[in-house]
Design a protein that fits this description.
InterPro entries: BlaI_family (IPR005650), WH-like_DNA-bd_sf (IPR036388), WH_DNA-bd_sf (IPR036390). Belongs to the BlaI transcriptional regulatory family. This is BlaI/MecI/CopY family transcriptional regulator. It comes from Nemorincola caseinilytica. By secondary structure, the chain is mainly alpha-helical. The protein contains 6 helices and 3 strands. It has helices at 9-21, 26-36, 41-53, 74-89, 94-104, 109-126; strands spanning 24-25, 57-60, 67-70. A hairpin with a 6-residue loop joins strand 2 and strand 3 (67-70).
């Protein structure tokens, strides 16, 4: 079985919208994209058609306006991209990635508590 294609930056923007909103038309996605950048409707349409061809999106043609759904999970995509980042930028060291992320990002108490809890769970599993 072939590996799921890695989405481009523009494709990730669309996937994030679909993961958050659920099934949406091109117009729905385009309206969200327009809030943060200049995007032409036909560009959004073409990109979503390409994503459908790449099997990143599923398309329901049952109504006049086609409804698109993400065909790949957010968790799997995040995992693939993080693995690629760790391998290419941090020589395979997840700890270097975490230290870099925590050092360059203002982390609030809630996030730190979640990180500590997760680390404790990992430690328990490894015993």
């Amino acid at each position: 079985m072939s590996e799921t294609p890695k989405p481009t930056e523009s494709e990730l923007e669309i996937l994030n919208i679909l993961w958050e909103r659920g099934p949406s038309t091109v117009r729905d996605v385009h309206e969200v994209l327009e809030q943060s950048k200049e995007a032409g409707y036909t560009t959004t349409l073409k990109l979503m058609q390409i994503m459908h061809d790449k099997k990143l999106l599923a398309r329901d043609t049952g109504s006049k306006s086609h409804v698109y759904t993400a065909n790949i999970s957010q968790e799997k995509t995040q995992g693939q991209l993080v693995k690629k980042l760790i391998d290419s930028m941090f020589n395979g060291s997840a700890s270097q990635l975490v230290m870099q992320a925590l050092g360059n990002h203002k982390t609030n108490k809630k996030e730190l508590d979640q990180i500590k809890k997760y680390l404790e769970e990992i430690e328990k599993k490894s015993k």
